[in-house]
Specification:
By secondary structure, this protein is an alpha/beta fold. It has three domains: about 20-230, Rossmann fold; about 235-340, Ubiquitin-like (UB roll) (Roll), CATH 3.10.20.600; about 345-445, NADH-ubiquinone oxidoreductase 51kDa subunit, iron-sulphur binding domain (de novo design (two linked rop proteins), Up-down Bundle). Helix content is about 40%, strand content about 15%. The chain has helices at about 20-25, 30-35, 40-50, 65-70, 95-100, 105-115, 130-145, 175-185, 215-225, 230, 265-275, 325-330, 345-360, 365-385, 390-405, 410-425, 425-440; strands at about 80-85, 120-125, 160-165, 210-215, 235, 240, 240-250, 255-260, 285, 295, 300-305, 310-315, 335-340. The strands form four sheets. It has a five-stranded mixed sheet, sandwiched between helices. A hairpin with a 5-residue loop joins strand 7 (about 240-250) and strand 8 (about 255-260). The longest helix is centred in the last third of the chain and has 21 residues, at about 365-385.
Amino acid sequence: MPATERRIIYRHIDEPGYTTDLVCYQRHGGYEILRKAIQRQPEELVQEVKDSGLKGRGGAGFPTGVKWGFLDRKSGKPVYLICNADESEPGTYKDRQIIYKDPHQLIEGTVLSAFAIQARLAFIYIRGEMFGGFTILERAIEEARAANFVGNNILGSGYSVDIIVHRGAGCYICGEETGLIESLEGKRAYPRIKPPYFPAVLGLYNCPTIVNNVETLCQVKHVLDMGGKEFAKIGVPGDSGTHIWGLSGHVAKPGYYEIESGKATVRDLLYDFGGGPPAGRTIKAIIPGGVSMKILRMGEKFKVKLPDGSPGEWGVLDIPLDSGSFAQCGTSLGTSGMIFMDDTTDMVEALANLNAFYAHESCGQCTPCREGSLWLKKITTRVCDGGGRMEDIDLVKTIADQVAGRTICAHGEAVAWPCQSNVPKFRDEWEAKIRAQIHAREHPEGAATTARTGLRLV
């Protein structure tokens, strides 16, 4: 039986006749959850989110309610809420669908979350290139303010919160929460050292701050609608709710699909939703959740613990679509942007493409990342341009090993993980490519000129 979607966040997205205006949103029950929740005690809402087991959907997967519980309320400083809408991970495009097609859902989720943590000012930090989304949000906030869903004395409750939309400058590192905070303060987006700069204690303007991404804040709305314990029944233990999967690469039907956590597999996503690979081709590899995650090669087998606790084995296509299952297979679902690569993909070229991106996006604060990303770019570019050496294969892996875990933020891992997984899993392709290049250099009279090929990921 084919797998099916369970749309909660995307319930009305792409629905015929559904628009971005307030009238349409209210016609579909919009802001009714806010009307009920704002009559409750804020700490009750925080407990509901804790009970739900909701994890952040921005990539790190940290429990949302636990994060809220870290807020330093004894300092006497104001509390801020930031929505991270700087969707910069290549292969990821789920949040912008909400912004462009259902902005009031994000606004309601933001106000609910702000009330729960008692923030009086919230920011939506949106990627600068998403100018259309910026104008849609600005208009929607004005509609909500005019209807008293945002602003002073919301719905006569005595609670007030305003929302400011801030455009970023198109910098990948602003997807990291402390880099985003630095940018929001008007400074260069250098991520902060943790500790002491945990945002819940020392965040925006050195005040307690919560940073959640777009999908997470929208999920909060539905947690409060269902109740935390009911929401926790959706999905699998340890990963409740739904995940919105962005499906791209070599598939017949790329797109976005909302699936109950753990209730479908990679095979279901590929064939039931994506329509399979292009005709006559086979899938070679997948990147599970945005390009910074470790790659998986078709044919790999993983020794795992099955849901009933017994030992088992999965192939790549058998992996259930939940965070714990991907972790057992040595990777992560990240931002749920799954990229499929078929047998036409040059895996060395694909890695070179990623290395060029990460070298460009490194903020330069940490030496291992600043220097290592450039070295990796230079080496893989040289290999793709015909100047490869056999020692380059191990050199790429060695450099990546010296970057991972040695930087202030996770950009170091984003640089390293693709290399650490690509090189050992596709060593045969590296060796064949470099061997052919060495032969061509030694026998230039018989060398054929070949164009660079590869899946362009960014």
